[in-house]
Amino acid sequence: MDHLRNSLPVCTLRDGTTHSRMILGGWQLSEWHSDARQWAETIEAYVRAGVDAIDCADIYTGVEETIGRALEHMTEAPRPRIHTKHVPDLDAIRRGKVTPETTRSLVRRSLERTKRKCLDLVQFHQWDYDADTYKTSIATLLSLRAEGLINGLGVTNCSTAFLRVLEDECGFIPLTTQNQYSIIDRRAETSLLPYAESRGIGLYAYGVVMGGLLSDRYLWVDRPEEPLENRSLRKYLRVLDDWGNWTMFQTLLKTLSDIGRKHNAWIAEIATAWTLGQPGTSAVIVWARHPRHAHRTVNTLGISLDHDDRRHIDEIYFTGTPLDGDCFELERHASRHRDIMKFNLNTPQ
């Protein structure tokens, strides 16, 4: 496994931490998405293929525990990094109920669930920027890092403006920022990526295949109709609708398929390679339901798109309407995107 792991491209974060440029994502593992029975095998397959970081969150129901149990029984060393998130409930934020004690309780719970003595990376998310509870959250997380319970601190679904607030008001520059970034959703390019680069903040890109929409499965088929398979599909179809229509999307998929034949790759692999190749992307977060996909997905790291590939993709992209605003602003404020979110999943036990 060490040989395979060392053969994968790695990113280097500001503090010198290195890990594979591909991170196994856990959102799809949460109980509102899929059956978790085979996920121990999937996790092990990706780790054996060289992916040495796994993404989860304290609000992904059952995910921290599943990852903790899966990794506990693995005999290979070193064990992969676990990147989790700290997401205070919106109700607690708005009632001013975010305290050092509640923050510590949630972090201790993540440690117990993942069966770790120190969390490799905790990514903070604030639902409501108008409430100043983020000051308490950041101060407490920094204290926990000083105590050795957290190694790295990042943010997730954070706008550029809020990154500046965290720096100006809290003196905090995160190690990483996890944001949505794909061929169709390029909001990160407007201001977040330049700011992140200026501060040495690594970008973890998620949504790179838009919940599976950017794949061979949706080429030359009718638009999916309600009821949809899962919440991811609902989320990314709305993103797609903001960019263009289903006919335009089919043209994009056909272009990606043509490029894929050139590289002996699937559409999803080309979409992932596009995001990996964008300046400022440290790593991409991918998900898979089946262990057999691990090596094929990891091979994406070896795909290098050339100028013509990117030009053909851009020609189709710019026939649509680029998404408005900064990262996660539509999801934070626009009702048709916001109603996908679940805001109160983290009451400490």
How does the SSE layout of this entry go?
Layout: H1 2-7, E1 10-12, E2 18-20, E3 22-25, H2 39-48, E4 53-55, H3 63-72, E5 81-86, H4 90-94, H5 100-114, E6 119-124, H6 134-146, E7 150-156, H7 160-170, E8 176-180, H8 192-199, E9 202-206, H9 231-243, H10 246-263, H11 267-276, E10 281-286, H12 294-298, H13 307-317, H14 329-333, H15 335-338
Parallel strand pairs: 3-4, 3-10, 4-5, 5-6, 6-7, 7-8, 8-9, 9-10
Antiparallel strand pairs: 1-2
Helix pairs in contact: 2-3, 3-5, 10-11, 10-13
Structure description:
The protein has a domain at 2-212 and 275-303: TIM Barrel, CATH 3.20.20.100. The chain contains 15 helices and 10 strands. The chain has helices spanning 2-7, 39-48, 63-72, 90-94, 100-114, 134-146, 160-170, 192-199, 231-243, 246-263, 267-276, 294-298, 307-317, 329-333, 335-338, and strands at 10-12, 18-20, 22-25, 53-55, 81-86, 119-124, 150-156, 176-180, 202-206, 281-286. The longest helix is centred in the last third of the chain and has 18 residues, at 246-263. The radius of gyration is 19 Å and the shape is globular.
